[in-house]
Amino acid sequence: MINRTSERCTPAYLFIIANTQRAFFNDSANCGIILLCFRKAVEDGENLTLAYRGLGICLMNRNDYEGAEEAFIKALHASGSTPSDVDYDINYYLGVCYHKLSKYEEAKERYDAILVLKPKEVDAYIQRATEYLYMQDIDSACADFDRALSLDKKNYSLYVDIYSLLKEAGY
User: For the segment 83-126, what is each residue's pLDDT rounded down to a tens digit?
Assistant: First the structure.
């Protein structure tokens, strides 16, 4: 359990938390303290990209997808003009939030943005295909599934994942 003192809300501490496994955020005792730390970091203007990203992850784990969406958007706005790995990560999280909020077009746009800069990003093709399925665009979904498979032909779990997604969507 995290010590509840304010010195735990330092920028270095936030950096460590922001780069830990998401499972750490699932611990409700930790998440409450972490939320306070990230909110304090935002107030203090400390590394806003990581602070808003961490805040968004905590809010997602509390099923507050609207709050998480807002935090992730602010994280992207606080980021520099050149996309970094953190920006891709935030776009993935934002895509999940949009999906959970049934904003499938907005989710698809997040994956579009990733694919413009990383055209061989298999996960982005799978996620975008999923959004196409929810928008009833099976042709576009299949095109993205095919593209993902062409990029990672020997990943047999990908075939199973695609089958499961298609089955779940009623195909």
Answer: 888 899 999 999 999 999 999 999 999 999 999 989 999 999 99
First to last CA, the chain: 45
Which residues lie below 8 Å from residue 22, measured CB to CB, with a gap of 6+? 57, 61
Question: Residue type at 77?
Answer: H
CA 87 to CA 102: how far, in whole Å?
22
Per the CB < 8 A criterion, the answer to whether 9 and 40 are in contact is: yes
Residues near 166 by Cβ (< 8 Å), separated by ≥ 6? 133, 145
Spatial separation of the C-alpha atoms in residues 11 and 167, rounded to whole Å: 45
For residues 4 and 60, give the distance between their C-alpha atoms in angstroms, rounded to a whole number: 22
| Residue-wise DSSP of 58-125 | HHHHTT-HHHHHHHHHHHHHHS-SS--HHHHHHHHHHHHHHHHTT-HHHHHHHHHHHHHH-TT-HHHH
Side chain identity, residue 117: L
Tell me the pTM: 0.82
